[in-house]
Write a structure and sequence with these properties.
The complex is a heterodimer of chains A (548) and B (357).
Chain A: H1 2-34, H2 45-52, H3 54-87, E1 88-89, H4 99-105, H5 108-119, H6 124-131, H7 142-166, H8 170-178, H9 183-212, H10 215-220, H11 227-237, H12 244-268, E2 284-285, H13 288-316, E3 320-321, E4 324-325, H14 333-341, H15 343-373, H16 377-387, H17 394-405, H18 416-439, H19 444-452, H20 457-485, H21 491-494, H22 502-511, H23 515-540
Parallel strand pairs in A: 1-2
Antiparallel strand pairs in A: 3-4
Helix pairs in contact in A: 1-12, 1-15, 1-16, 1-17, 2-12, 3-7, 3-9, 5-13, 5-23, 7-9, 8-9, 9-12, 11-12, 12-17, 13-23, 14-23, 15-16, 15-18, 15-20, 15-22, 17-18, 18-20, 19-20, 20-23, 22-23
Chain B: E1 4-13, E2 16-26, E3 31-35, H1 42-50, E4 57-62, E5 65-66, E6 77-80, H2 92-102, H3 107-120, H4 136-148, E7 154-158, H5 166-183, E8 186-191, H6 194-200, E9 203-208, E10 211-216, H7 218-223, H8 228-233, E11 238-247, E12 252-257, E13 260-267, E14 274-279, E15 285-287, E16 298-308, E17 312-320, E18 323-330, E19 343-347, E20 353-356
Parallel strand pairs in B: 3-8, 3-9, 6-7, 7-8, 13-20
Antiparallel strand pairs in B: 1-2, 1-4, 4-5, 9-10, 11-12, 11-14, 12-13, 14-20, 15-19, 16-17, 16-19, 17-18
The chains are: A mainly alpha (548), B alpha+beta (357).
């Protein structure tokens, strides 16, 4: 009896302890700091300022508006796109498989910077149009943010709708048709209502991502006040002082995101329809003109998704001075500079991301095993703690970690550990989700069979459970690598001298207007993300989107 | 190979008691079946014997060794699961050799033993396949080989045939029995299928809501059910309300069934008390009124329903408004089928049991 309970009990306790230390405790510190007066005692100064300062209220309003706008545009692209792809056969359809890859491998900073190269004040399209007398509105501000965020986030809605439609039982449509509805009516009266909750779940995810977005907001936001930017600015201004405003703004963001997630969990997810037998109707080959239209649409989306990559690689090998790029020229100056002065961020990025990916994946496998297979009050608590970071945007997470580990009993500021922890906590809910989805497919009897054959429980975990999970763990591993390599919002708050990563460097180069250098760093970053993934996919035969 | 003794084992899940003081003794080398409807506690008892569950009270003994607190992996058991539980990422060979390698047996012997066992279950040619590439029956054979190869003291099977189609189930029964007889491993087999239990077992324990209702050979249970529950669960039975009138000689009593006096076996109901008469449909004989004059144990009724099933015919015979008796009538026994509405005499055999209701 003792040998069976003890290891899992101890491991659960250890996982909870880690979560309390790096998730709960920092969030409580942050909450505490938001209720402080100017003299450091208890008070509501932060909230008084928040409601007194019109800029903060405007930031809140703008953030919600931006969230709604981007969610709407992303849905308007993602949903029809998914319908077209699932239900129709047309030329070039195979290209859509590339789309999720674009979102994974191209960091947001690079997408912003590339779109600036195209449509920014000195962008080649802007200048070309200006030459023929057409003046485009500034890309900074609402327009730029909505365009770029839509292009980044529509994939969430596209993939979510795709999954729902693939699981849709075609017999329901046949039933509707047999009862006298036209195919068009059937789509709107039967199919759409059934997949609507799934669309909404993903739309709400997009909303929370927009609220928490840092990179696109700060690079393209112009003078539009937004919560994430105000929070970051408050953090920069209060450096070394009383952190009350940054904490208050962080708390407002957390409450906003948590409210949306609460509605998602309690209202929308309950309406998700379980299909008993998902025999999706076969894709229909469409007529030639329709096929051309669909192919054009797909090609357009794929091009828009990969355009930043192309622009960036071209710009990386092009002569430039400050924000001016001499298109058509060729130069290795940018790359030479990167290799001469950029070794530190390159090595830092590789180091932090690989440590965080390895440690984070191991932790996720263990924690999800405890949550799914060793149900207890403690593992339930672990489950709740592990999803807590979902409510916390990167910037807010970074602020809470800085506030907690900058002073006090444990000081981590300035160490590599804080960077690794930041990455791990940021990705924790996602990696646990993908690890546990694999675990639900492992029946308990599998472990029992191994134990009955004489293999001790802990050894069974490694010999039986881990191999069965390996496929989805591998894809979680790859996703974590890509996302930690491109992470900016949290690390930009947490880092200090000597801990700069590639995304932080790129962000600073963009900020300083050195687009050529930013592109060169970008090219290096994307290469460092893609090459290991490519190797891993080849060597371990990973199916990247098996769980989606 | 061991004798299994279960003494006073109780187990509750939260407030729900699942096993209530179970006592059992399973003879060395025998094929023992736990039979009962779902929720009766048979799987819980099996998992307690395996060690996946700890009893709240009581002990499990293998021979003289108390294994109650021995963890599963040190109990030396073999287990066959309902869903086979083959490791999906491993080949048939790797699955079957898994237990041997855990025991640190050298490679050459492993190779030889696995080949031998795979051949024995007819999977010799499929050693390199993965479980997903096997049919249901082949998976079951692989799971059997995996459990048997470690030569466990005790083989435990949890409804191993329930995922197979009807025809395969019958052939797999023979395979399992042949392997068990050859290896002489004490085997506990859980099922809810009475035909499976009757055809395979040396001994059967019928379970009812956490207690053992009766233990015995298949013949014992069928011919001499200890109570109405057992009679009803195994095969079909008429369970009829009677009043016990008096004791008779030779362990018999006289009971009254709707006014008809019947001589039956005494199941412990005191005269004057209510009881249940248990009689199987195929044990009741029809006789024409003239032929049964003077015969004891006759009940008169009217045929109200007839279901022709080829080899046999099922009749419902109404004695009065509240009493209908099922009678099974084998083809060839009576030349002419009975007509609906016909008045018949039914002869109830004297070895039927009257138990307390």
């Amino acid at each position: 009896m003792r040998t069976r309970i003890l290891p899992w009990g101890l491991l659960t306790a250890a996982c909870i302890a880690l979560n309390v230390l790096f998730v709960l405790y920092p969030l409580l510190t942050l909450t505490g700091n938001s209720f402080r007066a100017a003299d450091g005692g208890f008070g509501f100064d932060g909230f008084i300022q928040f409601f007194a300062n019109p800029e903060y209220l405007e930031a809140l309003r703008n953030t919600i508006l931006l969230g709604i706008a981007v969610t709407t545009t992303a849905t308007l692209i993602g949903v029809p796109f998914a319908f077209i792809v699932v239900r129709h056969d047309f030329p070039l359809k195979g290209l859509v498989a590339l789309l999720p890859i674009a979102t994974i491998i191209i960091p947001e900073v690079i997408i912003c910077q590339s779109w600036l190269l195209v449509l920014g004040n000195n962008g080649f399209v802007t200048r070309a149009l200006r030459a023929i007398g057409i003046f485009l509105p500034s890309f900074y501000g609402w327009g730029g943010m909505i365009v770029v965020m839509t292009l980044v986030y529509y994939t969430y809605i596209y993939l979510g709708t795709l999954a729902a439609l693939r699981g849709f039982d075609g017999q329901l449509e046949e039933a509707s048709r047999s009862l006298g509805r036209s195919p068009f009516q059937t789509t709107f009266r039967v199919v759409l209502p059934t997949v609507l909750p799934a669309i909404l779940v993903n739309a709400m995810v997009v909303f929370t991502l927009v609220v928490g977005n840092f990179a696109i907001s700060i690079i393209l936001g112009g003078h539009v006040p937004l919560l994430s930017i105000e929070t970051y600015n408050a953090f920069v201004n209060e450096m070394g002082g009383n952190p009350v405003m940054q904490s208050t703004l962080s708390l407002v963001t957390i409450v906003l995101v948590a409210a949306v997630l609460f509605v998602q969990k309690r209202v929308v997810e309950r309406r998700l329809v379980q299909m008993t037998q998902g025999r999706a109707p076969a894709a229909v080959r469409v007529s030639s003109w329709q096929g051309i239209a669909f192919a054009g649409f797909v090609l357009f989306i794929v091009l828009l998704s990969f355009l930043p990559l192309v622009t960036m690689f071209v710009a990386a090998f092009t002569e430039s001075r400050g924000p001016m790029v001499r298109w058509g020229s060729f130069s290795l100056a940018g790359l030479e500079r990167v290799l001469a002065f950029g070794r530190e961020p390159i090595l830092n990025s590789l180091k932090f991301a690989s440590l965080a990916t390895v440690a984070g994946t191991c932790f996720a496998v263990l924690a999800s095993y405890l949550i799914v297979k060793k149900r207890s009050v403690a593992s339930q608590a672990l489950d709740y703690l592990a999803v807590l970071p979902l409510t916390v945007s990167g910037t807010v997470l970074g602020i809470s970690l800085v506030q907690t580990f900058n002073s006090g009993p444990i000081i981590l500021t300035g160490t590599s550990l804080i960077m690794v922890v930041t990455y791990m906590v940021h990705r924790l809910p996602f990696s646990i989700r993908s690890a546990s989805s694999a675990l639900y497919n492992v029946p308990d009897s599998l472990e029992e069979a191994s134990i009955s054959l004489g293999v001790a429980p802990l050894k069974t975990f490694f010999k039986v459970v881990v191999p069965v999970m390996s496929a989805s763990v591998a894809s979680a591993f790859v996703l974590m690598w890509a996302t930690t390599m491109s992470e900016l919002s949290a690390s930009v708050v947490v880092y200090s001298g000597g801990l700069e990563t590639l995304p932080i460097t790129i962000f600073r180069e963009i900020d300083s207007g050195r687009v050529g250098l930013a592109s060169a760093y970008g090219a290096v970053l994307v290469t460092l993300i893609v090459v290991p993934i490519g190797l891993a996919v080849k060597i371990f035969r990973i199916k990247l989107f098996a769980t989606k | 190979m061991a004798t299994i003794t279960i003494s006073n084992v109780s187990k509750a899940f939260g407030p729900t008691p699942v096993l209530k003081g179970v006592n059992l003794s399973v003879a060395n080398g025998s094929f023992f079946t736990l039979l009962g409807p779902s929720g009766c506690g048979k799987t819980t008892l099996l998992r307690t014997i395996a060690g996946f569950l700890q009893p709240d009270t009581g002990h499990v003994l293998f021979d003289d060794q108390d294994v109650t607190h021995v963890p599963v992996h040190r109990r030396d058991i073999g287990m066959v699961f309902q869903d086979y539980a083959l490791f999906p990422d491993k080949t048939v060979f790797a699955n079957v050799s898994y237990g041997l390698r855990a025991r640190g047996i050298e490679r050459q012997s492993v190779e030889r033993l696995v080949r031998e066992h795979l051949d024995r279950v007819g999977l010799g040619h499929l050693a390199d396949r993965h479980p997903a590439e096997l049919s249901g029956g082949q998976r079951q054979r692989a799971a059997l080989a995996r459990a048997l190869i470690i030569k466990p003291q005790v083989l435990l099977m949890d409804e191993p045939l329930s995922n197979l189609d009807a025809k395969l189930r019958v052939t797999m029964r023979e395979t399992i029995l042949d392997l068990q007889r050859a290896s002489k491993i004490t085997t506990i087999f859980v099922t809810h299928d009475q035909e499976e239990a009757l055809s395979m077992s040396d001994q059967i324990a019928i379970m009812d809501r956490g207690v053992i209702a009766q233990v015995g050979t298949p013949e014992d249970l069928y011919e001499r059910p200890a109570n109405a529950y057992v009679a009803d669960f195994i095969g079909a039975a008429n369970v009829l309300s009677v009043r016990v009138l008096q004791r008779a000689n030779a362990g018999h009593i006289i009971a009254s069934l709707a006014g008809n006096e019947l001589r039956c076996v005494d199941g412990g109901v005191t005269p004057g008390g209510e009881g249940k008469l248990i009689v199987r449909p195929e044990h009741i004989q029809f006789g024409s009124a003239e032929a049964t004059i003077g015969t004891k144990n006759v009940v008169k009724g009217q045929v109200t329903r007839r279901r022709y099933l080829g080899a046999k015919t099922l009749y419902s015979v109404s004695v009065d408004a509240d009493l209908t008796i099922a009678v099974e009538h084998h083809a060839g026994l009576y030349p002419r089928p009975l007509e609906l509405g016909q008045i018949v005499d039914m002869v109830v055999p004297m070895n039927c049991l009257v138990v307390a209701s």
